[in-house]
Fold:
Amino acid sequence: MDETLDAGVVLVRGSAAGFAQEIRAGRHRLVADEPVADGGTDTGPGPYDLLLAGLGA
Structure:
């Protein structure tokens, strides 16, 4: 899925294999994951990091 999403559309995808999630917001792409200590693979910021970043934006 390489097409750009419409403005205001957010898509979150993950698999049952782990905690990593691909997040797409319009033309932007992010990856979220849990730290290794919490069972993730630390491939991106954790959900609380993203929440705090959103509050600061």
Observations:
- Residues 10-56 form one domain.
- The mean pLDDT is 92.
- The chain is about 20% helix and 25% strand.
